From TrEMBL:
<dbReference type="InterPro" id="IPR000415">
    <property type="entry name" value="Nitroreductase-like"/>
</dbReference>
<feature type="domain" description="Nitroreductase">
    <location>
        <begin position="40"/>
        <end position="207"/>
    </location>
</feature>
<dbReference type="InterPro" id="IPR029479">
    <property type="entry name" value="Nitroreductase"/>
</dbReference>
<protein>
    <submittedName>
        <fullName>Nitroreductase</fullName>
    </submittedName>
</protein>
<dbReference type="Pfam" id="PF00881">
    <property type="entry name" value="Nitroreductase"/>
</dbReference>
<keyword id="KW-0285">Flavoprotein</keyword>
<dbReference type="InterPro" id="IPR050627">
    <property type="entry name" value="Nitroreductase/BluB"/>
</dbReference>
<feature type="region of interest" description="Disordered">
    <location>
        <begin position="1"/>
        <end position="20"/>
    </location>
</feature>
<keyword id="KW-0560">Oxidoreductase</keyword>
<keyword id="KW-0288">FMN</keyword>
Length: 229
């Protein structure tokens, strides 16, 4: 197995790409099934404490790490948190920031938008879910000499990777929550991340609680999100 190394300054070395082509019938069936299964995905805030095979989560992260990225620099780090004390510290810090947000920092318009979702400053999912995946974006690369090298399209690259992660977790039978407390500097401190990394999201994941409830929402139809040109 080849090991990744930074590509800065390496020559262009193309390699053949010859994937097997799926038949139109099979492609239609796969696409329809994927659309149906992803249509069942919901953001969950109530998690069961039931154990989840770690390999399922690791495979989902491996899927996320196949995402396209600017100049193929793969500017992401996934921190898998299972330690109860670390999760408790993350929850404590997150709830402090959320309390400030819900009591004045968000503003009336934002609070009005959140009201139908039933959210508040309490974040029990951060300690209830068996896994926290804390995603960091690498704003730049640090080489062995400590010199920094710019990464490109970092937000876009990490956003795509997180979308693929949520998809992989759902298709593997797990529930997840995209949690973005603001500001998130405390995550770097709690997890001891280097100066080139900035927290992007906290994703609790596991099985939904037996009594889990979700908002009664309606997604936009295909006609509402697609424009033909």
């Amino acid at each position: 197995m080849r090991t990744w190394t930074p590509m800065h300054g390496q020559p262009y070395q193309p390699t053949p790409y010859r994937p097997s082509r799926m038949s139109a019938k099979a492609s239609l069936a796969v696409a329809a099934d994927l659309r149906r299964r992803m249509g069942e995905r919901r953001t969950v805030r109530a998690f069961s404490a039931d154990p989840v095979p770690e390999q399922v989560v690791l495979d989902a992260i491996a899927v996320a790490a196949t995402a396209p990225s600017g100049a193929h620099q793969q500017p992401w780090t996934f921190v898998l948190v299972t330690d109860p004390e670390i999760r408790a510290a993350i929850r404590c810090a997150a709830e402090q920031e959320e309390q400030r947000s819900y009591t004045g920092r968000l503003g009336e318009e934002w609070l009005s938008a959140l009201e139908p979702l039933g959210t508040d400053a309490s974040k029990p999912h951060l300690t209830d879910a068996p896994y926290l995946i804390v995603v960091f974006e690498q704003r730049f690369y640090l080489d062995e000499q400590g010199e920094s090298h710019k990464h490109y399209y970092v937000d876009e690259s990490v956003g795509i990777a997180v979308g693929m992660l949520l998809t992989a977790l759902h298709l593997s039978g797990l529930a997840a929550l995209m949690h973005t407390p603001s500001p998130m500097r405390f995550l770097s401190e709690v997890l001891g991340r280097p100066r080139n990394e900035k927290a992007f999201a906290v994703i609790p994941t596991g099985y939904p609680a037996a009594d889990a409830m979700v908002p009664d929402l309606v997604r936009k139809s295909l006609d509402q999100v697609i424009v033909r040109a």
